[in-house]
Amino acid sequence: MAERASHADAGVQPAHTNVKVLVTDLDGTLLGGDEDGRRRLRRALERHPEITVVFATGRGLSSVQALLHRDQLVPPPRWIIADVGASVVDATDMSHVDVLEAQLRAGWPGHDRVRAALARRFPQLTYQDGVAQEGRCSYYLPPQHLTGHLTAAVEDLGCSWTYSDGRYFDVLPPQAGKGPAVRQLARKLQWPTTRILVAGDSLNDLSMFGLGTHGVVVGNAEPGLSAQVPTNDRVYRTELHGAAAILSALEHLGWVRDSAPVVIGYHRPPLHWTRGQWHRPMSPNGILPTLTSALADGSPHASTAIWAAALVQDDPAGVPGGVPAGESVGESASVPTGDPPHAPAGVPEPPTHLPMAFLPVPTRRWAGYFHGACKEALWPALMSQPHLIRHTTSQWADYEAFNEDFARHLSTHAEHGGTVWLHDYNLWLVPGILRSQRPDLHIGLFHHTPFPHPDIFRQLPVAEQLRSSLAQLDWAGFHTASSARHFQDLLADATHPPRTGVHPLGIDRQAVATLALSRPSHPACDDDTLLVLSVERLDYAKAPVQKIRAIATLLEARPELRGRLRFRLICPPPEPGIHAYDTTRAELEDAIDTLNARFAARGWSPIDYHPCSLPFPEVVDHYLAADVFWVTSLADGMNLTAQEYIVAKAATGRSGALVLSREAGAAEHFGTAALLTDPHSPQDLVDALSQALDMTPAQREAHTAGLVALLTTPSPAAWARSIIAGIQRARGPHQEASG
């Protein structure tokens, strides 16, 4: 066994997440009951991959492997406790976990010695020939021959024993048994007893019910087990048999739920785990707060929707390990960034009324999928920067695998004829995969990013694969008419092109206005000073380096602004592991240092750089202080920060100037009421900013009033509800053909 030690030592690591573990006996328990009950349990476990399945069986490993091969209703286990608790197996590669087996088999005198010693004195024992056995000896024994002499002889050998179903007599190492094996595995993986459910039907399962975990005694259990399992609120008893009893217990604990008529598919959940607790987004605006608001209590979809999201894991135990931060298109810089946090074992469920359906994703796959394919291949195309596309076969394989797993995950949660609302380019392959699996579903996808011109899209090496998948949508939504046109042109030759909708996303104006009014007032700044503000995450698509160059040109051309003009850039970094912006960050910080060194004088420097996230109230303070808000995106979705700036100013009776990129989605809605700028023209960036700085107070008041009048987008909740309705109305030929 020494050759397996290194694998076992490396393979058993602490789990790092909210733990749900089902430990179940096989014969009579998981395999018990009728086929319908087994099928329903299998589907429930497929809907909830966050539940770790552990087999605890009297079978040997080869018998379990044969069962998994021939019986499609058996859910795949993550761990196998075999040989009545003498063996522990990592089901990912069917290797024995020697570090645990050494403890469980300590003191075992050996198979041959036990068999020889008992055969001489107890001929009534019938050895189970043909049954593969490791670390145990198993016999058939009529109940009348279970005597004190026999059990004493076993104990004299330094062994323990179990007897079940009136015929199975197992001789085990003194430390072995299903209960001890579960205890050892749970200790190694840091599973809290309160997050484990054990299920059994016979007396060789009895030791599992003494661990302090949740338990279910199935309705077809042998009377001896029912009589000896303690009666307390942790043990669930039911008349249902086998698998149906397990499912009933899982439902009783609230660990599983039925399929839903509406499933939200987003690559991350609406909360993130950090600093020891779940956190909501700090801004009231953006897609995560919007969806949460839309599906809040009182919404027609509140009790019927499920949010499906990924959880990053870095634990070979197969249990989720944290929540990916991801990027958050359109949210303000108050949204914290950071790598996918690692939640400790036993972390509570996210405190949200909306049911969550988590898909565990290995850390390495997340890196290839999100850090690689999403940010280095697809993002440059979306931002109309095709020269930056970096496509690799391995990263694209991770993208394909993620989308395939996510599509399967959605399928298990969506009821027949249900609605699946996908979000963004992260899931572009899901429509094609899901359509082939579930032609009954209404499938829609909303793009929070701009959608590129077909000529740019086709520069992706995987353009045709993506185009084929997107053609399987019933409905596609966009912030702007130009993005919708690009999508329509790309799929113009599709047999049944998806319907499209233009639904510009607004902000929670009341929440921003209320917060702005609650902020402490600050003394008015010297009339001679001018503050220009940008709030944006680090991204070459936001053109931050171009901004610094424009400031340098402006200060060179207008020396009277030196000492008066300050540009404040609040620019939180991306999730660690994303390298697509490394060059941008280096160029930006070098340009800032050069400019500040060149023009700084008497305590003044032109650039005030904040490379960090800020709480949303502090962001609002910066909005209120700024004379000009500057957006220079090369491509953008809506850019909600521009809306936040205008609302904060208007709510407090202040005025300001908005310099807005023509490429931002908000430009289609504000039009010439904003000072539009061409981010591709260095001189236009300078001229538009100079114009904003020269506006008189009266001009700024009129400018702000004109922009406020154009803030007519529906509330975020109304926005989301209208999209769900649009997807459901877009009943395309996919569904009609399957009806």
TrEMBL record:
- The record lists the membrane-crossing segments as none
Offer one Pfam family short name for this entry.
Glyco_transf_20
Query: In its UniProt record, which GO terms are filed under biological process?
Result: trehalose biosynthetic process
- Per its record, what are the GO molecular function terms? alpha,alpha-trehalose-phosphate synthase (UDP-forming) activity; phosphatase activity
Region annotated Disordered, chain positions: 318-349
Matching SUPFAM superfamilies: HAD-like, UDP-Glycosyltransferase/glycogen phosphorylase
Pro residues compositional bias: what residue ranges? 338-349
| Residues covered by the Sucrose phosphatase-like domain | 20-253
Q: Which domain of life is it from?
A: Bacteria
User: Which PANTHER family does this entry report, sorted A to Z?
Assistant: BCDNA.GH08860, TREHALOSE-6-PHOSPHATE SYNTHASE
Query: What family does the Swiss-Prot or TrEMBL record give for this protein?
Result: Belongs to the glycosyltransferase 20 family.
Please identify the protein, giving its name as recorded.
Glucosylglycerol-phosphate synthase
Q: What is the lineage of its organism?
A: Bacteria, Bacillati, Actinomycetota, Actinomycetes, Kitasatosporales
